[in-house]
Design brief:
heterodimer; A: mainly alpha; B: alpha/beta; Rossmann fold; three-stranded antiparallel beta sheet; about 25% strand
Chain lengths: ~270, ~250
Protein backbone atom coordinates (compact mmCIF):
# COMPACT_ATOMS: atom_id res chain seq x y z
CA UNK A 1 0.00 0.00 0.00
CA UNK A 2 1.06 3.55 -0.62
CA UNK A 3 2.11 5.47 2.46
CA UNK A 4 0.02 8.56 1.83
CA UNK A 5 1.47 10.27 4.87
CA UNK A 6 4.93 10.29 3.30
CA UNK A 7 5.65 13.77 1.87
CA UNK A 8 7.49 12.39 -1.17
CA UNK A 9 4.46 10.23 -2.04
CA UNK A 10 2.15 13.23 -1.63
CA UNK A 11 4.36 15.31 -3.93
CA UNK A 12 4.59 12.49 -6.46
CA UNK A 13 0.82 12.00 -6.57
CA UNK A 14 0.20 15.73 -6.86
CA UNK A 15 2.79 15.98 -9.64
CA UNK A 16 1.18 13.18 -11.65
CA UNK A 17 -2.32 14.62 -11.19
CA UNK A 18 -1.10 18.04 -12.30
CA UNK A 19 0.60 16.54 -15.36
CA UNK A 20 -2.67 14.83 -16.30
CA UNK A 21 -4.08 18.25 -17.24
CA UNK A 22 -1.61 19.01 -20.08
CA UNK A 23 -1.63 15.29 -20.94
CA UNK A 24 -5.30 15.74 -21.82
CA UNK A 25 -5.26 19.26 -23.24
CA UNK A 26 -1.94 19.35 -25.10
CA UNK A 27 -1.68 15.59 -25.56
CA UNK A 28 -4.81 15.63 -27.71
CA UNK A 29 -3.35 18.35 -29.93
CA UNK A 30 -0.05 16.47 -30.13
CA UNK A 31 -1.87 13.39 -31.41
CA UNK A 32 -4.20 15.30 -33.73
CA UNK A 33 -1.47 17.55 -35.12
CA UNK A 34 0.97 14.64 -35.48
CA UNK A 35 3.53 16.15 -33.13
CA UNK A 36 4.34 12.99 -31.19
CA UNK A 37 7.90 12.82 -32.53
CA UNK A 38 8.47 16.47 -31.63
CA UNK A 39 7.09 15.87 -28.11
CA UNK A 40 9.45 12.93 -27.65
CA UNK A 41 12.40 14.79 -29.13
CA UNK A 42 11.96 18.00 -27.16
CA UNK A 43 12.06 16.05 -23.89
CA UNK A 44 15.11 14.06 -24.92
CA UNK A 45 16.81 17.15 -26.33
CA UNK A 46 16.85 18.71 -22.88
CA UNK A 47 19.31 16.02 -21.73
CA UNK A 48 22.50 18.02 -22.47
CA UNK A 49 20.95 21.04 -20.76
CA UNK A 50 20.33 19.01 -17.61
CA UNK A 51 23.88 17.69 -17.63
CA UNK A 52 25.29 21.20 -17.95
CA UNK A 53 22.97 22.45 -15.21
CA UNK A 54 24.35 19.80 -12.91
CA UNK A 55 27.94 20.67 -13.82
CA UNK A 56 27.54 24.43 -13.50
CA UNK A 57 25.14 24.46 -10.56
CA UNK A 58 22.30 26.27 -12.34
CA UNK A 59 18.61 25.47 -11.98
CA UNK A 60 17.87 22.33 -14.03
CA UNK A 61 14.42 23.51 -15.23
CA UNK A 62 15.93 26.72 -16.60
CA UNK A 63 18.65 24.85 -18.47
CA UNK A 64 16.17 22.27 -19.74
CA UNK A 65 13.71 24.95 -20.87
CA UNK A 66 16.48 26.89 -22.65
CA UNK A 67 17.61 23.72 -24.43
CA UNK A 68 14.05 22.71 -25.34
CA UNK A 69 13.18 26.15 -26.70
CA UNK A 70 16.48 26.28 -28.59
CA UNK A 71 15.60 22.90 -30.05
CA UNK A 72 12.20 24.20 -31.13
CA UNK A 73 13.64 27.31 -32.77
CA UNK A 74 16.36 25.33 -34.58
CA UNK A 75 13.80 22.83 -35.79
CA UNK A 76 11.51 25.52 -37.16
CA UNK A 77 14.42 27.23 -38.94
CA UNK A 78 15.53 24.00 -40.54
CA UNK A 79 11.98 23.20 -41.60
CA UNK A 80 11.33 26.69 -42.98
CA UNK A 81 14.58 26.60 -44.94
CA UNK A 82 12.80 24.12 -47.19
CA UNK A 83 15.81 21.82 -47.19
CA UNK A 84 14.18 19.09 -45.14
CA UNK A 85 10.84 18.03 -43.72
CA UNK A 86 9.78 18.45 -40.09
CA UNK A 87 10.48 14.83 -39.18
CA UNK A 88 13.95 14.88 -40.70
CA UNK A 89 14.79 18.14 -38.91
CA UNK A 90 13.53 16.74 -35.61
CA UNK A 91 15.49 13.53 -36.07
CA UNK A 92 18.70 15.34 -36.95
CA UNK A 93 18.55 17.65 -33.95
CA UNK A 94 17.48 14.83 -31.64
CA UNK A 95 20.53 12.76 -32.52
CA UNK A 96 22.77 15.80 -32.05
CA UNK A 97 21.30 16.62 -28.63
CA UNK A 98 21.42 13.04 -27.42
CA UNK A 99 25.02 12.64 -28.56
CA UNK A 100 26.02 15.92 -26.89
CA UNK A 101 24.26 14.84 -23.69
CA UNK A 102 26.04 11.47 -23.58
CA UNK A 103 29.47 13.01 -24.24
CA UNK A 104 28.92 15.72 -21.61
CA UNK A 105 27.54 13.21 -19.09
CA UNK A 106 30.62 11.01 -19.40
CA UNK A 107 32.75 14.01 -18.38
CA UNK A 108 30.44 15.41 -15.70
CA UNK A 109 29.04 12.41 -13.84
CA UNK A 110 31.03 9.78 -12.04
CA UNK A 111 28.09 7.44 -11.47
CA UNK A 112 25.68 6.05 -14.02
CA UNK A 113 22.82 6.37 -11.50
CA UNK A 114 22.69 10.13 -11.99
CA UNK A 115 22.36 9.66 -15.75
CA UNK A 116 19.57 7.12 -15.17
CA UNK A 117 17.71 9.68 -13.06
CA UNK A 118 17.93 12.28 -15.82
CA UNK A 119 16.79 9.83 -18.47
CA UNK A 120 14.05 8.00 -16.55
CA UNK A 121 13.08 10.35 -13.71
CA UNK A 122 12.75 9.87 -9.98
CA UNK A 123 9.81 10.53 -7.69
CA UNK A 124 11.96 10.61 -4.58
CA UNK A 125 13.85 13.63 -5.79
CA UNK A 126 10.74 15.74 -6.40
CA UNK A 127 10.76 18.93 -4.32
CA UNK A 128 7.91 21.23 -3.41
CA UNK A 129 9.46 23.74 -5.82
CA UNK A 130 9.22 21.21 -8.66
CA UNK A 131 5.51 20.72 -7.96
CA UNK A 132 4.90 24.47 -7.82
CA UNK A 133 6.71 24.89 -11.13
CA UNK A 134 4.54 22.18 -12.65
CA UNK A 135 1.43 23.92 -11.30
CA UNK A 136 2.56 27.18 -12.93
CA UNK A 137 3.12 25.46 -16.29
CA UNK A 138 -0.27 23.74 -16.04
CA UNK A 139 -1.91 27.13 -15.44
CA UNK A 140 -0.13 28.44 -18.53
CA UNK A 141 -1.27 25.47 -20.59
CA UNK A 142 -4.88 26.00 -19.49
CA UNK A 143 -4.59 29.68 -20.50
CA UNK A 144 -3.11 28.72 -23.89
CA UNK A 145 -5.90 26.20 -24.47
CA UNK A 146 -8.54 28.79 -23.62
CA UNK A 147 -7.03 31.43 -25.85
CA UNK A 148 -5.83 29.37 -28.79
CA UNK A 149 -8.17 26.38 -29.00
CA UNK A 150 -9.95 27.77 -32.06
CA UNK A 151 -6.66 28.65 -33.74
CA UNK A 152 -5.31 25.14 -33.18
CA UNK A 153 -8.56 23.57 -34.35
CA UNK A 154 -8.89 25.68 -37.51
CA UNK A 155 -5.20 25.43 -38.38
CA UNK A 156 -5.05 21.70 -37.76
CA UNK A 157 -8.19 21.04 -39.75
CA UNK A 158 -7.16 23.04 -42.76
CA UNK A 159 -3.79 24.82 -42.60
CA UNK A 160 -4.14 26.52 -45.99
CA UNK A 161 -7.40 28.26 -45.11
CA UNK A 162 -6.65 29.22 -41.51
CA UNK A 163 -5.64 32.82 -42.18
CA UNK A 164 -8.70 33.39 -44.32
CA UNK A 165 -10.78 32.52 -41.24
CA UNK A 166 -9.10 35.31 -39.29
CA UNK A 167 -6.83 32.89 -37.43
CA UNK A 168 -3.12 33.32 -36.75
CA UNK A 169 -1.67 29.90 -37.54
CA UNK A 170 2.04 30.69 -37.27
CA UNK A 171 1.91 32.43 -33.90
CA UNK A 172 -0.57 29.91 -32.52
CA UNK A 173 1.58 26.98 -33.61
CA UNK A 174 4.70 28.50 -32.10
CA UNK A 175 2.88 28.84 -28.79
CA UNK A 176 1.66 25.25 -29.09
CA UNK A 177 5.26 24.06 -29.49
CA UNK A 178 6.36 26.28 -26.59
CA UNK A 179 3.59 24.82 -24.40
CA UNK A 180 4.70 21.30 -25.30
CA UNK A 181 8.33 22.19 -24.55
CA UNK A 182 7.45 23.71 -21.16
CA UNK A 183 5.32 20.70 -20.22
CA UNK A 184 8.07 18.31 -21.29
CA UNK A 185 10.54 20.19 -19.10
CA UNK A 186 8.42 19.99 -15.95
CA UNK A 187 7.66 16.31 -16.63
CA UNK A 188 11.38 15.51 -16.72
CA UNK A 189 11.73 15.25 -12.94
CA UNK A 190 9.10 12.56 -12.60
CA UNK A 191 9.31 10.56 -15.84
CA UNK A 192 12.72 11.51 -17.23
CA UNK A 193 14.01 12.89 -20.51
CA UNK A 194 13.43 9.70 -22.49
CA UNK A 195 9.87 9.02 -21.37
CA UNK A 196 8.09 12.36 -21.64
CA UNK A 197 5.83 10.81 -24.26
CA UNK A 198 4.28 8.44 -21.72
CA UNK A 199 2.58 11.52 -20.29
CA UNK A 200 2.18 13.67 -23.39
CA UNK A 201 1.30 11.11 -26.06
CA UNK A 202 0.22 7.69 -24.80
CA UNK A 203 -2.95 8.67 -22.86
CA UNK A 204 -4.20 10.87 -25.73
CA UNK A 205 -3.35 8.22 -28.33
CA UNK A 206 -5.37 5.73 -26.27
CA UNK A 207 -8.28 8.13 -25.90
CA UNK A 208 -8.22 8.75 -29.67
CA UNK A 209 -9.19 5.11 -30.13
CA UNK A 210 -12.31 5.69 -28.06
CA UNK A 211 -13.76 8.94 -29.33
CA UNK A 212 -13.87 11.06 -32.46
CA UNK A 213 -14.83 14.34 -30.75
CA UNK A 214 -12.33 16.84 -29.38
CA UNK A 215 -13.75 17.65 -25.93
CA UNK A 216 -14.34 13.99 -24.94
CA UNK A 217 -10.89 13.17 -26.32
CA UNK A 218 -9.26 15.71 -24.04
CA UNK A 219 -11.32 14.62 -21.03
CA UNK A 220 -10.67 10.90 -21.51
CA UNK A 221 -6.96 11.53 -22.07
CA UNK A 222 -6.83 13.58 -18.87
CA UNK A 223 -8.58 10.88 -16.84
CA UNK A 224 -6.39 8.14 -18.29
CA UNK A 225 -3.23 10.13 -17.54
CA UNK A 226 -4.41 10.72 -13.96
CA UNK A 227 -5.25 7.06 -13.33
CA UNK A 228 -2.09 5.79 -15.01
CA UNK A 229 0.00 8.40 -13.15
CA UNK A 230 -1.37 7.45 -9.73
CA UNK A 231 -0.98 3.73 -10.51
CA UNK A 232 2.58 4.40 -11.70
CA UNK A 233 3.44 6.07 -8.38
CA UNK A 234 2.08 3.03 -6.55
CA UNK A 235 3.99 0.62 -8.78
CA UNK A 236 7.20 2.65 -8.58
CA UNK A 237 7.01 2.75 -4.79
CA UNK A 238 6.12 -0.93 -4.46
CA UNK A 239 8.71 -2.25 -6.91
CA UNK A 240 11.38 0.40 -6.36
CA UNK A 241 11.45 1.39 -10.03
CA UNK A 242 11.19 4.77 -11.74
CA UNK A 243 7.75 6.27 -12.23
CA UNK A 244 8.47 6.91 -15.91
CA UNK A 245 9.12 3.25 -16.77
CA UNK A 246 6.18 2.17 -14.59
CA UNK A 247 3.85 4.56 -16.37
CA UNK A 248 5.25 3.50 -19.75
CA UNK A 249 4.43 -0.13 -19.03
CA UNK A 250 0.95 0.75 -17.74
CA UNK A 251 0.19 3.16 -20.57
CA UNK A 252 1.45 0.75 -23.20
CA UNK A 253 -0.65 -2.05 -21.69
CA UNK A 254 -3.80 0.06 -21.59
CA UNK A 255 -3.23 1.24 -25.16
CA UNK A 256 -2.78 -2.34 -26.38
CA UNK A 257 -5.90 -3.49 -24.54
CA UNK A 258 -8.02 -0.65 -25.90
CA UNK A 259 -6.64 -1.07 -29.43
CA UNK A 260 -7.44 -4.79 -29.27
CA UNK A 261 -10.94 -4.21 -27.92
CA UNK A 262 -11.80 -1.54 -30.50
CA UNK A 263 -10.45 -3.71 -33.31
CA UNK A 264 -12.58 -6.65 -32.13
CA UNK A 265 -15.64 -4.41 -31.88
CA UNK A 266 -15.03 -3.04 -35.36
CA UNK A 267 -14.80 -6.60 -36.69
CA UNK A 268 -18.01 -7.57 -34.91
CA UNK A 269 -19.90 -4.58 -36.29
CA UNK A 270 -18.98 -4.22 -39.97
CA UNK A 271 -19.28 -0.72 -41.38
CA UNK B 1 -26.17 41.17 -47.06
CA UNK B 2 -22.99 42.59 -48.52
CA UNK B 3 -22.26 44.26 -51.87
CA UNK B 4 -19.17 42.80 -53.46
CA UNK B 5 -16.51 44.05 -55.84
CA UNK B 6 -12.92 43.26 -56.74
CA UNK B 7 -10.36 45.39 -58.50
CA UNK B 8 -6.85 44.21 -59.36
CA UNK B 9 -4.32 46.38 -61.20
CA UNK B 10 -0.97 45.20 -62.53
CA UNK B 11 -0.59 42.52 -59.89
CA UNK B 12 2.66 40.57 -59.59
CA UNK B 13 3.51 38.44 -56.58
CA UNK B 14 6.04 35.86 -55.51
CA UNK B 15 6.48 33.31 -52.73
CA UNK B 16 10.22 33.28 -53.46
CA UNK B 17 11.90 36.66 -54.03
CA UNK B 18 12.74 37.19 -57.68
CA UNK B 19 10.48 34.41 -58.98
CA UNK B 20 7.00 35.71 -59.75
CA UNK B 21 4.32 33.09 -59.19
CA UNK B 22 1.84 35.34 -60.98
CA UNK B 23 2.23 38.56 -62.99
CA UNK B 24 0.44 41.10 -65.16
CA UNK B 25 -3.00 40.51 -63.66
CA UNK B 26 -5.52 43.33 -64.08
CA UNK B 27 -9.26 42.91 -63.86
CA UNK B 28 -12.33 44.31 -62.14
CA UNK B 29 -15.52 42.50 -61.16
CA UNK B 30 -18.56 44.28 -59.83
CA UNK B 31 -21.12 43.38 -57.19
CA UNK B 32 -23.31 40.46 -58.22
CA UNK B 33 -20.88 39.06 -60.77
CA UNK B 34 -19.51 35.56 -61.07
CA UNK B 35 -16.03 35.26 -62.55
CA UNK B 36 -14.80 31.91 -63.81
CA UNK B 37 -11.05 31.61 -63.27
CA UNK B 38 -9.56 29.22 -65.83
CA UNK B 39 -6.05 27.90 -66.08
CA UNK B 40 -3.99 24.73 -65.95
CA UNK B 41 -2.81 23.20 -62.68
CA UNK B 42 -0.05 25.46 -61.45
CA UNK B 43 -1.29 28.26 -63.68
CA UNK B 44 -1.93 30.66 -60.79
CA UNK B 45 -5.59 30.24 -59.85
CA UNK B 46 -4.94 29.44 -56.19
CA UNK B 47 -2.04 31.89 -56.17
CA UNK B 48 -4.41 34.67 -57.26
CA UNK B 49 -6.71 33.76 -54.39
CA UNK B 50 -3.75 33.86 -52.00
CA UNK B 51 -2.95 37.35 -53.27
CA UNK B 52 -6.54 38.49 -52.72
CA UNK B 53 -6.42 37.02 -49.20
CA UNK B 54 -3.25 38.98 -48.46
CA UNK B 55 -1.15 35.83 -48.14
CA UNK B 56 1.03 36.32 -51.22
CA UNK B 57 3.74 38.97 -50.99
CA UNK B 58 2.72 41.48 -53.70
CA UNK B 59 5.70 42.90 -55.59
CA UNK B 60 3.82 45.21 -57.91
CA UNK B 61 0.30 46.42 -58.45
CA UNK B 62 -2.69 46.86 -56.17
CA UNK B 63 -5.70 44.92 -54.96
CA UNK B 64 -8.98 46.45 -53.81
CA UNK B 65 -11.75 44.41 -52.27
CA UNK B 66 -15.19 45.37 -50.99
CA UNK B 67 -14.33 43.63 -47.72
CA UNK B 68 -12.51 40.67 -46.26
CA UNK B 69 -13.08 37.77 -48.68
CA UNK B 70 -14.15 34.27 -47.71
CA UNK B 71 -12.12 31.37 -49.08
CA UNK B 72 -13.55 27.97 -49.95
CA UNK B 73 -10.64 25.54 -50.40
CA UNK B 74 -10.57 22.27 -52.25
CA UNK B 75 -11.88 19.62 -49.89
CA UNK B 76 -8.73 17.53 -50.13
CA UNK B 77 -6.84 20.33 -48.39
CA UNK B 78 -8.78 19.54 -45.20
CA UNK B 79 -7.82 16.83 -42.70
CA UNK B 80 -10.57 14.23 -42.94
CA UNK B 81 -9.44 12.46 -39.76
CA UNK B 82 -9.84 15.60 -37.64
CA UNK B 83 -12.47 15.26 -34.90
CA UNK B 84 -14.87 17.90 -36.21
CA UNK B 85 -18.52 17.68 -37.17
CA UNK B 86 -20.06 19.50 -40.11
CA UNK B 87 -21.46 22.04 -37.65
CA UNK B 88 -18.01 22.58 -36.09
CA UNK B 89 -16.58 23.33 -39.52
CA UNK B 90 -19.33 25.81 -40.40
CA UNK B 91 -18.90 27.49 -37.02
CA UNK B 92 -15.28 28.29 -37.93
CA UNK B 93 -16.77 30.97 -40.16
CA UNK B 94 -17.62 32.94 -37.01
CA UNK B 95 -14.18 32.68 -35.39
CA UNK B 96 -12.94 36.02 -36.74
CA UNK B 97 -15.73 37.93 -35.00
CA UNK B 98 -15.68 35.98 -31.75
CA UNK B 99 -13.46 37.16 -28.89
CA UNK B 100 -11.09 34.44 -27.68
CA UNK B 101 -12.66 34.31 -24.23
CA UNK B 102 -16.26 33.99 -25.47
CA UNK B 103 -18.31 31.13 -26.81
CA UNK B 104 -19.47 31.55 -30.37
CA UNK B 105 -22.62 33.69 -30.08
CA UNK B 106 -26.05 32.05 -30.12
CA UNK B 107 -27.01 34.01 -33.23
CA UNK B 108 -23.92 32.72 -35.02
CA UNK B 109 -24.77 29.16 -33.99
CA UNK B 110 -28.26 29.66 -35.38
CA UNK B 111 -26.77 31.18 -38.54
CA UNK B 112 -24.45 28.15 -38.87
CA UNK B 113 -27.43 25.81 -38.82
CA UNK B 114 -29.21 28.07 -41.31
CA UNK B 115 -26.16 27.92 -43.59
CA UNK B 116 -26.23 24.12 -43.45
CA UNK B 117 -29.95 24.23 -44.30
CA UNK B 118 -29.19 26.51 -47.21
CA UNK B 119 -26.62 24.16 -48.75
CA UNK B 120 -29.08 21.28 -48.40
CA UNK B 121 -27.56 19.55 -45.39
CA UNK B 122 -30.03 20.32 -42.59
CA UNK B 123 -29.64 16.93 -40.92
CA UNK B 124 -25.87 16.63 -41.19
CA UNK B 125 -24.86 19.00 -38.39
CA UNK B 126 -23.59 16.27 -36.09
CA UNK B 127 -22.07 14.13 -38.84
CA UNK B 128 -18.31 13.83 -38.82
CA UNK B 129 -16.87 15.98 -41.62
CA UNK B 130 -14.62 13.16 -42.77
CA UNK B 131 -17.56 10.76 -43.07
CA UNK B 132 -19.40 12.96 -45.58
CA UNK B 133 -19.18 12.48 -49.34
CA UNK B 134 -16.90 14.78 -51.36
CA UNK B 135 -19.87 16.83 -52.57
CA UNK B 136 -21.30 17.15 -49.07
CA UNK B 137 -17.93 18.23 -47.70
CA UNK B 138 -17.73 20.90 -50.39
CA UNK B 139 -21.18 22.15 -49.41
CA UNK B 140 -20.14 22.32 -45.75
CA UNK B 141 -17.12 24.44 -46.69
CA UNK B 142 -19.41 26.72 -48.70
CA UNK B 143 -21.74 26.95 -45.68
CA UNK B 144 -18.73 28.08 -43.66
CA UNK B 145 -18.12 30.86 -46.19
CA UNK B 146 -21.80 31.83 -45.97
CA UNK B 147 -21.43 32.24 -42.21
CA UNK B 148 -18.50 34.59 -42.82
CA UNK B 149 -21.00 36.80 -44.65
CA UNK B 150 -18.26 38.07 -46.95
CA UNK B 151 -18.93 40.36 -49.91
CA UNK B 152 -16.42 38.44 -52.00
CA UNK B 153 -16.13 34.65 -52.16
CA UNK B 154 -13.09 32.86 -53.58
CA UNK B 155 -13.96 29.27 -54.47
CA UNK B 156 -11.17 26.87 -55.41
CA UNK B 157 -12.56 24.29 -57.82
CA UNK B 158 -15.80 23.80 -55.87
CA UNK B 159 -17.36 21.65 -58.57
CA UNK B 160 -14.44 19.30 -59.19
CA UNK B 161 -15.38 15.72 -58.47
CA UNK B 162 -18.68 16.46 -56.73
CA UNK B 163 -21.81 14.38 -57.28
CA UNK B 164 -24.59 15.74 -59.49
CA UNK B 165 -26.89 16.54 -56.54
CA UNK B 166 -24.21 18.60 -54.87
CA UNK B 167 -23.23 20.27 -58.15
CA UNK B 168 -26.84 21.33 -58.81
CA UNK B 169 -27.21 22.67 -55.27
CA UNK B 170 -23.93 24.57 -55.49
CA UNK B 171 -24.81 26.13 -58.84
CA UNK B 172 -28.23 27.19 -57.52
CA UNK B 173 -26.50 28.73 -54.54
CA UNK B 174 -24.16 30.68 -56.82
CA UNK B 175 -27.21 32.22 -58.48
CA UNK B 176 -28.63 33.22 -55.08
CA UNK B 177 -25.34 34.77 -53.98
CA UNK B 178 -25.15 36.71 -57.23
CA UNK B 179 -28.66 38.03 -56.52
CA UNK B 180 -27.47 39.16 -53.10
CA UNK B 181 -24.81 41.32 -54.73
CA UNK B 182 -21.79 39.25 -53.77
CA UNK B 183 -18.85 38.77 -56.10
CA UNK B 184 -17.77 35.20 -56.73
CA UNK B 185 -14.42 34.16 -58.18
CA UNK B 186 -14.67 30.48 -59.06
CA UNK B 187 -11.56 28.54 -60.09
CA UNK B 188 -12.56 25.78 -62.47
CA UNK B 189 -11.36 23.56 -65.28
CA UNK B 190 -14.81 23.40 -66.83
CA UNK B 191 -14.83 25.79 -69.77
CA UNK B 192 -18.47 25.12 -70.62
CA UNK B 193 -19.51 26.06 -67.10
CA UNK B 194 -17.33 29.18 -67.01
CA UNK B 195 -19.01 30.21 -70.24
CA UNK B 196 -22.31 30.51 -68.38
CA UNK B 197 -20.97 32.98 -65.84
CA UNK B 198 -20.59 36.74 -66.17
CA UNK B 199 -16.87 36.98 -66.89
CA UNK B 200 -13.90 34.74 -67.45
CA UNK B 201 -10.32 35.24 -66.33
CA UNK B 202 -7.69 33.08 -68.04
CA UNK B 203 -4.39 32.56 -66.23
CA UNK B 204 -1.19 30.77 -67.05
CA UNK B 205 1.41 32.30 -64.76
CA UNK B 206 0.13 35.63 -66.10
CA UNK B 207 -3.19 36.95 -67.26
CA UNK B 208 -3.95 35.65 -70.73
CA UNK B 209 -7.34 37.34 -71.10
CA UNK B 210 -10.31 38.70 -69.17
CA UNK B 211 -13.80 39.68 -70.21
CA UNK B 212 -17.22 38.40 -71.22
CA UNK B 213 -17.22 34.68 -71.99
CA UNK B 214 -18.25 35.19 -75.57
CA UNK B 215 -15.20 37.37 -76.17
CA UNK B 216 -12.69 35.40 -74.14
CA UNK B 217 -13.48 31.74 -74.77
CA UNK B 218 -11.97 31.44 -78.19
CA UNK B 219 -9.90 28.42 -79.17
CA UNK B 220 -6.85 30.69 -79.49
CA UNK B 221 -7.18 32.04 -75.95
CA UNK B 222 -7.79 28.60 -74.49
CA UNK B 223 -4.81 27.21 -76.37
CA UNK B 224 -2.67 30.01 -74.97
CA UNK B 225 -4.06 29.33 -71.50
CA UNK B 226 -3.78 25.57 -71.41
CA UNK B 227 -1.49 24.65 -74.24
CA UNK B 228 -2.76 22.92 -77.36
CA UNK B 229 -2.96 19.39 -76.02
CA UNK B 230 -5.84 19.94 -73.66
CA UNK B 231 -8.36 21.69 -75.88
CA UNK B 232 -11.41 19.70 -76.90
CA UNK B 233 -13.37 21.15 -79.78
CA UNK B 234 -16.87 20.36 -80.89
CA UNK B 235 -18.89 21.27 -83.96
CA UNK B 236 -17.88 24.64 -85.30
CA UNK B 237 -14.68 24.90 -83.32
CA UNK B 238 -16.38 25.78 -80.06
CA UNK B 239 -14.40 24.85 -76.94
CA UNK B 240 -16.59 22.70 -74.75
CA UNK B 241 -14.31 21.42 -72.12
CA UNK B 242 -10.84 21.34 -70.71
CA UNK B 243 -10.40 19.07 -67.76
CA UNK B 244 -7.93 17.83 -65.22
CA UNK B 245 -5.19 15.71 -66.68
CA UNK B 246 -6.64 15.80 -70.13
CA UNK B 247 -10.20 14.74 -69.34
CA UNK B 248 -12.90 16.65 -71.14
CA UNK B 249 -16.08 17.69 -69.33
Amino acid sequence: MLDLSAPYIQRALLEMLLLAVPAGLLGSWIVLRRLAFFAHAVGTASFPGLVLASAWGIAPPLAALATALGFGVAQERLERSGRMGADAATGLLLVGCLAAGVVLASDVFESGAEVDTLLFGSLIGLTAGDVWLTAAVVAGVVALEAGLRRHWLGTGFEPAGARALGLRPVAADRLLLAGIAATAVVALDSVGALLVTVVLVVPAATARLLTSRLAPLQLVAMLLAAVEGVAAVWLADALNVGAGPAMAVLGGGVFAAVAGATALRARAVPA
Amino acid sequence: MSAGGVSVRGLAGAYVPGRDALRDVSFAAGAGEIVGVLGPNGGGKTTLFRALLGELPIRRGAVELAGRPAYVPQTERARLDFPVSAFDVVLMGAYARTAWFRRVAARDRAAAQAALDRVGLPDSATASFGALSGGQRQRVLIARALLQDAPVLLLDEPLSGVDSVSAARIEALFAELRQEGRTLLVATHDVRQAGEWDRVLCLNGRQVDYGRPAAVLSPETLRETYGGDLIVLEGGGRAIGVGHHGHAH
